[in-house]
Design brief:
By secondary structure, the chain is of the alpha+beta class. The protein has two domains: 1-38; 40-186, Metal Binding Protein, Guanine Nucleotide Exchange Factor, Chain A. The protein has helices spanning 8-35, 65-71, 74-82, and strands at 40-46, 52-59, 100-104, 110-113, 117-118, 126-127, 136-141, 148-153, 159-164, 174-177, 182-186. The strands form three sheets. It has a six-stranded antiparallel β-sheet. It has a three-stranded antiparallel β-sheet with strand order 4-3-11, with no helix packed on it. The protein has a two-stranded antiparallel sheet with strand order 1-2. The longest helix has 28 residues, at 8-35. The relative contact order is 0.18.
């Protein structure tokens, strides 16, 4: 080696060592990220009666689009995985007045209680609050030339709809949800196991 330059044999040796070490370094980094809680979220669980049973830390549900497409009905897939919107007054829960819970159609996380559902006149199921703030995530949405707040499932990132500030008391909010993103279950008697 002369000055700041390596000879050819030294350079080859350096590159071999570097090349052999990089994959190992990346695998150590990836495995430590996996064990450091990456991909975990906290949600609130409820029993079938809608009674809060506690906060749990669960793995995020992440699947390739092809797998979601196999699991979901076509409209459910378009709404939840591609952020489409069902036509107003056409969703399966737009006129549902039964007592129960609304879950994510993708991962079954509890999202809304029928006790907070109200008639908004918009043609989509509307709620004045989620069943637990931990179970939904909000994100800014500037699509379609307007500013809105998108509502997503915390556990699987399914697009649920949008939230607006024109709802009734006590929150003044209107969680305007797509029926295609929801799965309704009738409320069971208190103390029942979740479905």
């Amino acid at each position: 080696m002369t000055g700041n330059h390596f000879s050819r044999p030294q350079r080859r040796f350096f590159l071999k060592v570097l090349g052999a070490g990089l994959p190992a370094a990346f695998s150590i980094r990836a495995s430590s990220a996996a064990t450091n809680g990456k991909g975990l979220v906290k949600i609130v669980e409820f029993d079938a009666a809608g009674v809060r049973t506690g906060v749990v830390e669960v793995e995020k549900v992440e699947k390739p689009l092809a797998e979601w497409k196999k699991q979901l009905a076509p409209e459910d897939f378009e709404v939840t995985r591609r952020a489409a919107t069902e036509r107003p007054f056409t969703g399966r829960y737009a006129n549902n007045h039964a007592d129960g819970l609304y879950h994510c159609v993708c991962c079954n996380t509890s999202l809304f209680d029928s006790k907070t559902k109200f008639e908004s006149g918009t043609g989509w199921p509307s709620f004045w609050q989620p069943i637990a703030k931990e179970n939904v995530r909000l994100r800014s949405d500037d699509s379609l030339g307007m500013h809105r707040t998108e509502v997503l499932c915390t556990r699987c990132e399914a697009h649920l709809g949008h939230v607006f500030d024109d709802g009734p008391p006590p929150t003044g909010l209107r969680y305007c949800m797509n029926s295609a993103a929801l799965l309704f279950t009738q409320r069971a008697k208190s103390g029942s196991k979740p479905s």
